[in-house]
Automatic annotation (TrEMBL):
Provenance organism: Pontivivens marinum
Gene3D superfamilies on file: 3.30.70.920, Winged helix-like DNA-binding domain superfamily/Winged helix DNA-binding domain
GO MF assignments: sequence-specific DNA binding
Pfam families linked: AsnC_trans_reg (PF01037), HTH_24 (PF13412)
Database matches in PROSITE patterns: HTH_ASNC_1, HTH_ASNC_2
Identification of the protein by name: Lrp/AsnC family transcriptional regulator
Positions of transmembrane segments: none
InterPro entries for this protein: ArsR-like_HTH, AsnC-type_HTH_dom, Dimeric_a/b-barrel, Tscrpt_reg_AsnC-like, Tscrpt_reg_AsnC/Lrp_C, Tscrpt_reg_HTH_AsnC-type_CS, WH-like_DNA-bd_sf, WH_DNA-bd_sf
Keyword check for Transcription regulation: yes
Signal peptide limits: none
Keywords assigned: DNA-binding, Transcription, Transcription regulation
Single GO biological process annotation from the record: regulation of DNA-templated transcription
One GO term describing the cellular component: cytosol
């Protein structure tokens, strides 16, 4: 499916507010409610819209610390990778896990209450998988944090 300018406008608006009514969304992109609904449905069926979620303020629920874990490993076999992927998926504190190019093997993003909670996460991770090196950086200030893609 090819998307046009109107589809892009729909996606931009839905990224800002997935709860918007089809009437309001249609008015913002220049379509009737029904035409807008059909486009949104087509975008969902084609996989452009994976799911709709609620974004929770992490500070309000006590998850005040963002941590990036830089992982190096000397194990690169499929069994280790499967074990590592499963461990990261099982830990809800880990929001993102990425296999990297260059000097770093993996980068994890986690959200925890404080340094003690980070240490508990670290201990849980190293009990699950063997790592050659793990270092962490704590976010001091968020300058930008968004889920909106440039559509």
């Amino acid at each position: 499916m090819q998307i046009d300018l109107i589809d892009r406008k729909i996606l931009r608006n839905l990224q800002r507010n997935a709860d918007i009514s089809h009437d309001d969304l249609g008015a913002q992109v220049g379509l009737s409610r029904n035409a807008c609904w059909r486009r949104v449905r087509a975008l969902e069926q084609a996989g452009f819209i994976r799911k709709r979620v609620v974004l929770i303020d992490p500070d309000r629920i006590g998850l005040k610390l963002t941590v990036f874990l830089m992982i190096r490993t000397d194990r690169h076999g499929p069994d280790w990778l499967e074990e590592f992927a499963k461990a990261t998926q099982d830990m809800p504190e880990i929001l993102g896990a990425y296999r990297m190019s260059g000097d770093l093997d993996y980068l994890l993003q986690a959200r925890v209450a404080d340094v003690a909670a980070y240490d508990a996460l670290y201990q849980k991770l190293i009990r699950r998988v063997e790592l050659a090196d793990c270092s962490a950086s704590f976010v001091m200030e968020e300058l930008k944090d968004t889920t909106e893609l440039p559509v």
